[in-house]
Amino acid sequence: MPGPHGPRGPKPKIKNPGKLFTRLMRFILRKYWLQCLIVVICIFISVLANVQGTLFMQSLIDDYILPLLGTEKPDFLPLLHAMTRVAIFYAIGIASSFAYNKIMIYVSQGSIRQMRDELFSHMQDLPIRYFDTHSHGDIMSIYTNDVDTLRQLISQSLPQIINSVITVVSVFISMIILSVPLTILTLVMIGVTLLATKYFAGFSSRYFLAQQQDLGKVNGFIEEMLNGQKVVKVFTHEKQNIEDFNKLNDQLFESAYNANFYAGSMGPINAQIGNLSYVLCAMIGGIMALGGFAGLTLGKLASFLSFNKSFNMPISQVSQQLNSIIMALAGCERIFGLLDAEVEEDNGYVTLVNATENADGSLSESDSRTGLWAWKHVHQADGSVDYKRVTGDVVFDDVDFGYVPEKIVLHNVDLYATPGQKIAFVGSTGAGKTTITNLINRFYDIQDGKIRYDGININKIKKADLRHSLGIVLQDTHLFTATVMENIRYGKLDATDEEVYAAAKLANADTFIRQLPDGYNTVLSGDGANLSQGQRQLLAIARAAIADPPVLILDEATSSIDTRTERIVQDGMDKLMAGRTTFVIAHRLSTVRNSDCIIVLEQGRVIERGNHDQLIAARGKYYQLYTGKTAEA
Amino acid sequence: MLKTLGAHVKEYTAASIATPIFMLMEVALETIIPLLMASIIDDGVNKGDTHHIFIMGAWMILAALLSLFSGCMGAKFGSKASMGLGKNLRKAMFENIQTYAFSNIDKFSTAGLVTRLTTDVTNIQNAYQMILRMAMRAPATILCAMAMSFFISPTLASIYLAAVILLGIALSIIIRKAMKYFDHAFEKYDELNESVQENVSAIRVVKAYVREDYEKKRFTTASQNIYNVFTKAESLVILNNPLMMFTVYSCILLISWLGAHMVVNSALETGDLMALLTYCMNILMSLMILSMIFVMISLSVASARRICEVLNEESDLHNPSDPVYEVADGSIEFKNVTFRYSKSSETPVLDNINLSIKSGETIGIIGGTGSSKSSLVNLISRLYDVDEGSVSVGGRDVRDYDMDSLRNQVSVVLQQNTLFSGSILDNLRWGDPNATEEECKKACELACADEFIQTFPDGYETHIEQGGTNVSGGQKQRLCIARALLKKPKILILDDSTSAVDTATDAKIRKAFREAIPGTTKLIIAQRISSVQDADRIIVMDDGKLNGFDTHENLLANNEIYRDVYESQTQGGGDFDEGGAA
Fold this sequence. Notes:
The complex is a heterodimer of chains A (633) and B (582). Chain A has helices at residues 17-65, 77-124, 128-133, 136-178, 180-227, 229-234, 238-291, 298-340, 433-440, 463-468, 484-489, 497-506, 510-515, 533-547, 563-577, 589-593, 612-618, 621-631, and strands at residues 351-357, 363-366, 373-378, 385-389, 394-401, 410-417, 422-426, 448-453, 456-457, 470-473, 482-483, 523-524, 551-555, 581-585, 597-602, 605-610. Chain A has 633 residues and is α/β, with parallel strands linked by helices.
């Protein structure tokens, strides 16, 4: 794949987190606003249920226990009533907690499904250029890592933040109601915690950075050396290797040890400052209760101490969750980046139809497959329709093209193929052979000049129809995880089994398919990894054959297959080419020699054209290529 | 498995023992605090004793500070022990892999080995850290808090005991069930991602056949499936939360009710009641954490298994007890050699091969893919061992030689070759660490690599990227040949090593070999007939058997396969390309 692959450095800073977050929320709320509203209400209720339970401790001690102390016949009836009320609130709290958790599943999974579907659907409409300029690994990581962190954001971080915020607010209010001085004391201790956290986080993040770097070095070394392990063996380089590795590994241990030590200390530090806060409140509160200062009763103190314990947790949770939101938003940026990528433009209006020939030689449209194809050209000016037979007449008129506008790779290319001809492109690697074939089916649009197909500018032809009329066999075949049958049928989705067999026979694939464990029902996996290169090529030919297109574009396989398989593949290709206009990127002398027209390319320019005999007679580059081959013999 | 892993933590035994002890201390000190608080209330506030409040407060602060110290020490030793385990595992695996024979390397894929050394080790060291710290902390908290509760009031504490047992059972049932669902769900999820991957790499096929809508429809169905399995799995997990709340609330209500009675009946003091309610939260939260830890640890079991596989793998090849260090000459002899990659496979890869090559001969090897050309030459430097028969080099069985010595004198340029990150000189010196720049240049001239190296601005100091991605295929192959030449071997084997080099350069390299190293035995595997036809003799391999071994002229006259290949390449079936335009 040409195109720059950006280095995978550290994560870039997000440009506009606020805007991203709003966009994300709009995306979720668009479909789930009602559910989200209910979730917030339920969280609110469940937090309140918890808070009222803690508050009850105050009246338990002050109103129901202390007054009864020393009484002869204590009356527990009022306590029973009070506790029943608390129990009912608790029950409501549990119910709403269950409800919001359940609803959140549907909201998070539903939003993620929506996101995935939109991503995939949008990706299908992106131009090939997008896939050239973005590495497949990067695209995949959007589907796996980024969507996954997003799911965590929706299902965990968001509800937890809402929960924490509501808890902090309601606990704070309750604390103020119970005792203002102790609340201030608690706040001061929170401040101390935050300062300590910040101080230690600075330490640990420095070591974490070092750890990441050292880990990168170790992993890089491992990857490189294991990939070359056989070379290491052949050159008996093992000892040196171990020495180098140990150096890196020891360095990693140092930084990892420090990073984890500091990170691991954060927990105890937070917890113990929290405990100190608790202790101070207990002491000071105890003295206050003793003196009856500021109306602090024993029950109030008990409640307050409980709140003090539950105040620390949500605050450290919020700071943790904020971190994960930032991470998720970085993923969101990439997700939206893909969704915002521009789709393939298609202003074509000429369509491909089946046709029948009338007595007077004119064409009319037909619903069934007739084997005769026509371009249906609805003229935009007056709405009149005319039909033109698809013959495979392709003309390049002064075409310039570059994958990036600044770097033109094809210069002033003129080309003409008359119907039924076999056109071969030859030239060295990088001469522009594949590029030309990519222009015919409009994988890329040209910068300048015109390409006409049966006299129609290909920009006027609907892309889908243009591509339907062209069969392509690529050099690196791609097969899908599915049965052999389904893979061939990919060329024509409504093909019958018989048609599949026929196509396989034409492509010389039938014999080996029948020898597979389950014949045509053998499941191929991992891009046909269980087949040889030649067999995969044969399936790709069969796939093109079943589509039965009027024009073919073939990229011949290079020397990676052995001679005998190569011949079978060659024979399959020859049968497929019979009677069709064919553009072939030729690597084999036989293909080249049998072509009606040979186009010799060099550095993006057509330097020679003609048939074999003409070009040999011309004694130019072709002659050189052709004879240079055997000159060594 | 535990034994294998345990061996590598030995160095850090002290830290591994210290960590849980410190964690236990941290927890114990922490659980004392509510008890001291109870004393503040009961003996201080209720009895009006300010002095007692201060003393208890001071004790509490001391407890918190000691707890802080223990916590940090726990973090320190935990980090040391777990990161040390990680370090030792990586080291042991890497060292063991260095002893692997080719057959061992084949067994694991390279990507598989890399994952085991990176991700799996990280998983294990994190799991170990968690076991030492968290998995100690949670049960310790439960135990300490439980003990304190029993100390305060055995009657009320038994409520906790019942709650812990019930909740524990319920959580484990939920987790076990959910894990099963999640396994299934993640499987489906992997499938979905694989199909996206496939779609991305085959996007040209999708677009060429105008199958965008078809693919979208298929994807939507798959994604609906994922939705279904995940909502089902998660519906189980969310039961945890309400269940937990129910238990906590029930305990609070029960303790409050019974506690109130006991306080009024003077069987319990107010402060003790408050302490009990604090322990309630401690105990049940720890149980929750414990269940989470359990899930995470069980996930790392797979990693541990994969690591042990690498550690326990023993090399298939061993040095002889009394090895020979010097290879006499470059002669090679195969006697009745039969070879299989896997002992269980029925058809041998090489079947009864007999051949003899004189020192200094140039031998071409040709044959279709899968005809075992590479397997044949790999036996010469003992990259694999034969099943039957014997391979001799310099008149001695290869199994008699010290492996390093043999490989230094039989130099192989592998088909799948690799350059390493570093300068060109660094790479060349793999062949001979002490080679002078002059010697390196000489080797590059022979391999026709000097000509393009000179065009680089930094010449021999040019930095090669990992995997040699910044040089072309043909250039890479020539550098690899130069590197092999620097060993000054008695036997030089080129396994399809000039496939990306154009024919003219290919011929030049062969000419240089003929003239500069006439004494070295040269074996050249090639697809192109032109690369082998000027060799002294040519081996024709077919389906693991020696089909012919003779000169070009004789083979052309007598060998059907050879003639076939020759004709197809020179008369209409050959390559048109110049190969890698170098």
